[in-house]
Amino acid sequence: MIGDLYPGGARGWIEVICGVMFSGKSEELIRRVRRALIAKKRVQVFKSHLDERYAGIYHVSSHDGRTVEAIPIDTPEQIARAVQSDTQVVAIDEAQFLQAGIVDLATALAGSGKRVILAGTDTDFRGEPFGCMPQLLAVAEVVDKLHAICVVCGNPASRNQRLIDGKPARYDSPTIMVGGDESYEARCRSCHSVPRRDEDQVRLL
Ligand code: ADP
Ligand code: ZN
Predict the structure, then answer these.
(1) Which of 45, 169, 197, 199 is least surrounded by CB atoms within 10 angstroms?
(2) What is the pLDDT of residue 205?
(3) How confident is the model at residue 24 (pLDDT cuts 50, 70, 90)?
(4) Which of 2, 17, 21, 22 to mutate to test the pocket of ligand 1 (most atoms within 8 A of CB)?
């Protein structure tokens, strides 16, 4: 079911692992990287918004002792500069935070014969497409959409529930919160809540 068996040979392609937070995108990206290392491929891993919490997780080793660490990046240009010409597999986590240039970069890397694996959340807290993810899904050869478990009802979760001070964040709440205690939960469509302003509610009735 998970689409990492795409036959490659010398030619490149793009795989996208998408889904809600906690759906296991990073676990799946790491699994593919580990298997590429077992296949003795030359691999580079990149991650936007890398912080110290990830340092342990992002030291990926195969059983024969090959290891790879994630390189922290903020822009597609940084990835372009860091990718070595003999690299065969380029893996990029948290792709949803990267600017639109990531689409052309992934396409160019695949065109030069590399396997490109991107993982990212495909919807924002409103349930709407996130950044460059729709374009990446469109240009990819292989797409996997993973689900978490809804923390309210236990069904498959496909939405990122944003909470501010424990309450569902409004549709128009600012992306960057100043003050306020912000958290996220995985939820299904029917348990996902994004209150609109009162006038919007009335218009929708
Ligand atoms: P992602 O990269 O998609 O955010 P991770 O690979 O970092 O996901 O984490 C997946 C892990 O998160 C799961 O294996 C599980 O242990 C844990 N987890 C925590 N909350 C949930 C949830 N609501 N549903 C499923 N897994 C969860
Ligand atoms: Zn639910």
Answers:
(1) 199
(2) 54
(3) very high
(4) 22
The average pLDDT across 89-93 equals: 95
Q: What is the pTM of this model?
A: 0.90
Give the pairing of strands 142-146 and 13-19. parallel
CB of 169 within 8 A of CB of 192? Answer: no
Ligand 1 center from residue 73 Cα (angstroms) = 23
CA 82/CA 133 separation, integer angstroms: 22
User: Is 94 a catalytic site residue?
Assistant: yes
Report the sign of the C-alpha dihedral through residues 149, 14, 52, 31, in that order.
positive
pLDDT of residue 63: 72
State the distance from the centre of ligand 2 to the C-alpha of 189, rounded, in angstroms.
7
Domains of the chain, first to last: 2-146 (3.40.50.300)
Residues with Cβ within 8 Å of 32's Cβ and at least 6 positions away in sequence, in order, are 4, 15, 91, 117
Report, as an integer, the average pLDDT of 153-158.
Answer: 98
Residues linked to residue 19 through DSSP beta bridges, in sequence order: 146
Rounded CA gap, 99 and 28, in Å? Answer: 23
Residue 202 phi/psi, 5° resolution? -65, -45
Average model confidence (pLDDT) across the chain: 88
